[in-house]
Amino acid sequence: MNIYKDYIQEIEERKAQGLHPKPIDGAELLSEIIAQIKDLNNEHREDSLKFFIYNTLPGTTSAAGEKAKFLKEIILGESEVKEITPAFAFELLSHMKGGPSIEVLLDLALGSDTVIAKQAAEVLKTQVYLYDADTARLAQAYSAGNTIAKEILESYAKAEFFTKLPEVAEEIKVVTYIAAEGDISTDLLSPGNQAHSRSDRELHGKCMITPEAQAEIKALQAQYPDASVMLIAEKGTMGVGSSRMSGVNNVALWTGKQASPYIPFVNIAPIVAGTNGISPIFLTTVDVTGGIGIDLQNWVKKTDAEGNVVRNEAGDPVLEEVYSVATGTVLTINTKTKKLYNGEKELKDISKSFTPQKLEFIKAGGSYAIVFGKKIQTFAAQALGVTAPTVFAPAKEVSIEGQGLTAVEKIFNKNAVGVTPGKTLHAGSDVRVKVNIVGSQDTTGLMTAQELESMAATVISPIVDGAYQSGCHTASVWDKKAQANIPKLMKFMNDFGVITARDPKGEYHSMTDVIHKVLNDITIDEWAIIIGGDSHTRMSKGVAFGADSGTVALALATGEASMPIPESVKVTFKGEMKQHMDFRDVVHATQSQMLKQFDGENVFQGRIIEVHIGTLLADQAFTFTDWTAEMKAKASICISQDQTLIQSLEIAKSRIQIMIDKGMDNKNQVLQGLIDKANKRIEEIKTGAKPALTPDDNAKYYAEVVIDLDLIEEPMIADPDVNNVDVSKRYTHDTIRELSFYGTDKKVDLGFVGSCMVHKDDLKIVSQMLRNVEKQNGEVKFNAPLVVAAPTYNIIDELKAEGDWEMLQKYSGFEFSDALPKSTARTEYENIMYLERPGCNLCMGNQEKAEKGDTVLATSTRLFQGRVVEDREGKKGESLLASTPVVVLSAILGRMPSIGEYKAAVEGINLTKFKPISTKL
Fold this sequence. Notes:
single chain, alpha/beta, seven-stranded mixed β-sheet, 33 strands
């Protein structure tokens, strides 16, 4: 009874933290619990019954296998438990979602006992998580003349699993709660420094916003028991930044409703809103949970009598409130009129929140049930040889005669599944598409594994070209939590058919390379669609979408994703880069110039940025595409010249070959298959059979932005503007300032060169700057710490071969050791250079941290409050984002440099350059 005693001890420990028993996912523990249930005199029998009924995880967990087997025994009369009747056993099976439960239900439905078979059939008719082995059994039984199988298939063909569900309520009463003013990042809802607990839903839920906020939400629920709490980003966008399912899970845990009485801490139906709507990735995740996301537009730009926008002293538009959503305001959502009301007063048309597809997600309790349901209906109709009736809302197909296609429209048309044959689709169409590449990162991967188990998936879809599980978000600190979680994750994903950064068998060197860099390398076709479990899944080849852990699981299991074809914004360049400018400055200037061109409106938000960047290789172009997450774009596409694309593909091939040489390929030879596909694509481009992807001349864009390189005179800094009197303007990524704004009295406490925003040339720039400063001053002395983390091991190998790593080692006071990785995060720094292990490092928030209240200058993408640096009493921490040369020089000086000092430090250095293409692509 040791394992049960250990569980009881863990329960006591959790009780001291205000937590309930951890849900059971292991077969060994549940087997012991079942034995205690069978023993009528066992002192633990009553508790064991509760654990079995209410605290066992469903899907394909090993515990679910034991539970399904025992319920089958009860139904067949082989075991008798007075508290679990056969009827109750069927009910419990109906909540187990798939895998072992479906196998048991099929055994019973296709068995010889007709009474039991009919009961099992009724339960099966409500289930949608069936896979090939399950549907094959049904089809085979039907072909053999089994009447029960025929009855089940007929029900599936009519989609009764959906049509018999209760309709969405016409009126939904909500009470508002302002979670924060300004953009709300998912860090507020699911902090990066709590990543280790994401798979423990109840524990992780404790970190949402603050304990005080959680208490306020509970008080609202007590005051308004008939209303749902609607979480709001006042004067901002809800859910910007990371793509965390855990953020929505936490919101659902505190404000939603329980998905099933027999599945602990899985809640659905959260309601969220923002003045400027919901971030695209976050909205997808809300759909996964059958929730509602609302664009309030309750603050608008104030205009004068002539219709001109009124501006404040800083030149920013003055906002005025159209209607109040202050905390505690009771509102009504009408799902029929699709409007938001305060009493009888209509406040806002919210039709976009209640499209036919979104209403289906709400009715079904989430988008997965609809995805699987459509597949089951199609299968059943084909098996019966009938035409499936139209049950689900037809996919919206927008086709405009005479209008050309943007790059993303071309990619979606190529990869579309189940659309009207011969029809060309434009932006606004709802499309199911084949996914080519899938990426899972390590701090959300545990949740992806749980999602795969809950949807009963056991093997990767054969139509996925390649999938990768990273180890980058836990690279720099290999603590006890990582040691417990990550090997388990790597084994699960490796067994599932995914290429893993760490080898469960220990036969190849662990690769902590930044996931986006690996995905960028294994994308070997610019016509590809990529889904990744991180908001920075934005490749410079193909079109990539950052996604929540559940959407990643769905892509791995089915090889598909569903979404509308987004509108595009075309970005082109003119002028010439100054010699002392780095390409990172062009990236920041793009955001700044766009906002000026469109009077403060972010035309990138929720759209594809089609950037005509033809002369930059994929590594360097990734700096632009990566930053588009901070521009709030849905994704981005690089339009490249033929020769540039060929060169990028050759580099990708060489890096995939290194992975093969390490021993990372699997039995299906996925990596070798990618090299073969790359060779084919290169040949197509060289022969002219299929040139590099370009949009049509007569494609239609939401907007066109032209960036003038001549206007970029100084390095550009993205500033969190932590002391802005307007709270909504803080931490937005939209405040872009020139270097001279700061002056040389602006102290810098820490510099960080790393994260997915840097590439090999950035590390070479560090080396070259050290040489420059050494030549000028005789030595290099750091007046602030400088943390340097290469994004990949390949880059370190190449720097060693080219002599740059030796220069970095010369001035480093710390160099990482794979043999002895750090077990605790560094939070205090000396004025030296730290050469850190490849990976995300400071950017993540769950690994290294700056000292509280520091002013950090970083090449990172994250300037959110508390992410890279937390506040201390009397001083806010600030993470300013800049190019590599600015960061390095600032760490050497311990302050912001003057423009003169900067120019002298970068003289003769080959910064990342960019030239607009002179000929039409």
